[in-house]
Amino acid sequence: MSMPAKPPPFDPADPLGLDDLLDPEDLAVRDTVRAWAGERVLPHVADWYEKGELPGVRELARELGGIGALGMPLDGYGCAGASAVQYGLACLELEAADSGIRSLVSVQGSLAMYAIHRFGSEEQKLRWLPGMAAGEIIGCFGLTEPDHGSDPAAMRTHAKRDGGDWVLNGRKMWITNGSVAGVAVVWARTDDGIRGFVVPTDSAGFSAPEIKHKWSLRASVTSELVLDDVRLPADAVLPGATGLRGPLSCLTHARYGIVWGAMGAARACFEAAVDYAKSREQFGRPIGGFQLTQAKLADMAVELHKGILLAHHLGRRMDAGRLRPEQVSFGKLNNVREAIDICRTARTILGANGISLEYPVMRHATNLESVLTYEGTVEMHQLVLGKALTGIDAFR
């Protein structure tokens, strides 16, 4: 009888051995994005956050395009054609730096590019996707309105036929990338139902004033979209999408990235808490040697790595074509909620230092308050799961 192989040493950074689930290409993608974020974001993001700005966003977008992070899982048109798991790993590493950076990538790839790639004409794909994949063109996605967030079916933005053209009027709110975008995918009510339109942002009547006075996602461009008699040619409409199924499928793709990204923010806070607990001394010893602190760290580690394992499982299902929207709701509901709890617990370990921008904890905690509600609030995902579990629709 052969002796069982000796298990590898326990790795505090990977207590479940989740790296064993990744192949060399997965690890290479993760390491590339981690290195880029460590060099280009982490040294500056606290200052960006404090000032409430994201300077050089167009340069950052081109760099992200250069490492293949924009429209990662899409095929052709200059896109990387990466796996869903690789895209998820990239989202985790980007959000470990800052949620605003992951939002930039998510809106570009999972919303604007995904909508054009899935529902657009060949001419639309050829016109927009290569430049967007390279980061030369930034995109945004206009669905949410000032009075209609969780109920997009009630949107007021409308598009009317005028001869061979479309004329769009309305407002969209809380739009990431809006003020720096070269193209906007805008959803509007028409006589034939809700349709998507590819809107060049230099169109007459289009404007995107930036939203200020945010206390979350401060290192991110957030805007209102204003459409006043924006005239578009007939071929501006996305031919493959009619009704809410189109924009909702885009949101499912973006929510998948959040399942991973939230764990990146949680990991950054957990690592800060561990480092602090090992170096901060009270009562003559590091606070990491006290039972209550160790209990907090153990609970944080359990939820963090369970969340990463859940994200990995959903990624493999997406790669196999078996991922359902209800499962994405499961992941977003759990992982964002647990990430916020990890950040808040990390703040207690750091004490007063936890509110300082010298550490990442409070920045991630406030960012996650936005992540908690965008791409579907907690209540919406609870109701999605409730309907799936009972067969009863409780939305109305």
TrEMBL record:
The keyword Transit peptide applies. Residues 243-389 form the Acyl-CoA dehydrogenase/oxidase C-terminal domain. Keywords: FAD, Flavoprotein, Oxidoreductase, Transit peptide. It comes from the Bacteria. Residues 24-136 form the Acyl-CoA dehydrogenase/oxidase N-terminal domain. It holds the Pfam family Acyl-CoA_dh_1. Residues 140-230 form the Acyl-CoA oxidase/dehydrogenase middle domain. InterPro entries: Acyl-CoA_Oxase/DH_mid-dom, Acyl-CoA_Oxase/DH_mid-dom_sf, AcylCo_DH-like_C, AcylCo_DH/oxidase_C, AcylCoA_DH/ox_N, AcylCoA_DH/ox_N_sf, AcylCoA_DH/oxidase_NM_dom_sf, Glutaryl-CoA_DH_mitochondrial. It comes from Streptomyces prasinus. This is Acyl-CoA dehydrogenase. Its cofactor is FAD. Belongs to the acyl-CoA dehydrogenase family.
